[in-house]
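Why should sequence recovery work at all? Because a backbone constrains its sequence more than one might expect. Tight turns favour small or flexible residues, buried strands favour hydrophobic ones, and helices have their own preferences. The token representation captures these environments compactly. In the example below, the structure is given first.
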């Protein structure tokens, strides 16, 4: 990777940026560091997003001060991470991350404990200069440094030009950079969707081929990445791109296999619909929970397996429980979905057969179940794609609109029999039962 280039410096004015869009806490941190004789800049996603007129999610600071030096300057500072030490500066609930410039890992030890034998970087904790820090970042548009004091942006890597052309370009040789950290593969997809940029052809070329490298990423790290991938207003586009680059297969192998084997588009459409619903909720500032989306992503493998093994169990619920155990165990070895997510996922799945019992007090008790609402939403999604008779979905929708006395009437055995004899219900499909 090249070093010792002259950077191009732009004024905020010529980039159409206004200093009053900067986070005042982040600016106060850079001010204090500079007063103490250090270099300090706003860097990464915040500069990139400001250039697009977007409101940055968070402001990160990059400096040549080392963690202990940062800590000595700020009372409200906590150092985190053992190998990769970062300073977190707290302003109430607001946290600004301050990182010391990092350099290339080969600088200090050439043959070396920092890289895995297949080129993956295991550590990234060697301090460096501003320029070295720029080159070890991922995409050029993520390697821009904003100096709030001088009101300039420093660009070593051609990031402004790429930004203006809406291009995501990995610095250096893409194959080497993806090998160093395969998470960059999913970051490329996420930023493409978030920013509506193109992935530069040279960067995109090895992506599909390198997708299997994601298998080596620790499952815990992948969980955080997955949330960032799907909990946003471009979730369905992200999902499509992940499939296009074979990244989805590396992340959710059981689901991908089922999608490939499916006789119809329904399982795929169900997932896409769930993604679109997430997008719509986020656009309306409604709450979204990751477990619901994860439940839809893993439902097809659970459904298939439970159907396959149904004869070994005494009920549909038991068959679903057993299938869920197997599918979840397999999935968490790839992506460490925490128990607080897998527990409600399992509940939502295992509650599905209860929608087929439209009679008796159990039915009314079901309405009170803490997971009823999520299970109901999940059932509605299934009914849209032919897994549940729409009449059953309507029945439950209607039941919820009634007063308790009417609900009792509607779920009385006689009422049910009467209704049944009047109008024969279509037989539920195998997956219904
Ligand atoms: P957003 O916050 O919108 O997700 P971001 O660019 O700020 O986007 P972060 O994950 O917060 O993303 O990372 C901050 C910066 O750290 C990035 O802009 C990039 O410069 C650098 N960075 C993050 N992850 C990597 C990586 N895997 N390889 C190289 N550089 C990275
Ligand atoms: Mg960020």
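From this structural description, the recovered sequence reads:
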């Amino acid at each position: 990777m090249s070093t010792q280039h002259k950077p191009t410096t732009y004024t905020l004015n010529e980039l159409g940026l206004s200093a009053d869009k900067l986070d005042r806490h982040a600016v106060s941190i850079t001010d204090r560091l500079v007063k103490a004789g250090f270099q300090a800049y706003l860097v990464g996603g915040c500069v990139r997003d400001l250039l697009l007129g977007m409101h940055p999610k968070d402001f990160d600071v990059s400096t040549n001060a080392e963690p202990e030096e940062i800590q000595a300057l700020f009372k409200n500072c906590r150092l985190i991470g053992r190998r990769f030490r970062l300073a977190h500066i707290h302003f109430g609930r607001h946290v600004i991350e301050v990182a010391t410039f990092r350099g290339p890992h080969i600088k200090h030890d050439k043959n070396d404990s920092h890289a895995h034998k297949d080129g993956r970087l295991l550590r990234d904790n060697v301090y460096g200069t501003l320029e070295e820090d720029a080159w070890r970042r991922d995409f050029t548009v993520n390697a821009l440094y904003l100096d709030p004091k001088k009101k300039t942006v420093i660009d070593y890597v051609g990031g402004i030009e790429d930004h203006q052309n809406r291009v995501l370009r990995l610095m250096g040789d893409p194959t080497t950079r993806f090998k160093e950290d395969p998470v960059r593969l999913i970051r490329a997809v996420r930023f493409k969707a978030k920013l509506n940029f193109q992935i530069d052809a040279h960067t995109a070329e090895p992506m599909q081929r390198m997708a299997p490298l994601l298998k080596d990423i620790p499952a815990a790290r992948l969980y955080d990445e997955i949330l960032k991938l799907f909990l946003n207003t471009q979730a369905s586009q992200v999902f499509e791109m992940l499939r296009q680059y074979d990244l989805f297969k590396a992340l959710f192998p059981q689901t991908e296999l089922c999608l490939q084997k499916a006789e119809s588009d329904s399982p795929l459409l169900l997932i896409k619909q769930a993604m679109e619903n997430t997008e719509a909720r986020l656009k309306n500032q409604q709450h979204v929970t990751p477990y619901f989306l994860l439940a839809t992503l893993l439902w097809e493998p659970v459904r298939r397996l439970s159907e396959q093994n149904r004869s070994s169990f005494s009920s549909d619920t038991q068959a679903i429980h057993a299938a869920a155990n197997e599918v979840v165990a397999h999935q968490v070895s790839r992506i460490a979905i925490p128990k607080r997510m897998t527990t409600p996922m399992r509940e939502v799945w295992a509650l599905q057969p209860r929608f087929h019992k439209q009679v008796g007090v159990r039915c009314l008790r079901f309405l009170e179940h803490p997971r009823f609402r999520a299970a109901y939403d999940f059932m509605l999604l299934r009914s849209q794609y032919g897994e549940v008779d729409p009449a059953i979905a309507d029945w439950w929708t209607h039941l919820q609109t009634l007063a308790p006395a009417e609900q009792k009437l509607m779920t009385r055995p006689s009422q049910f029999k009467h209704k049944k004899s009047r109008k024969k219900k279509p037989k539920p499909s195998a997956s219904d039962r």
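A few observations help interpret the result. The domain at 1-165 is CATH 3.30.460.10 (Beta Polymerase; domain 2).
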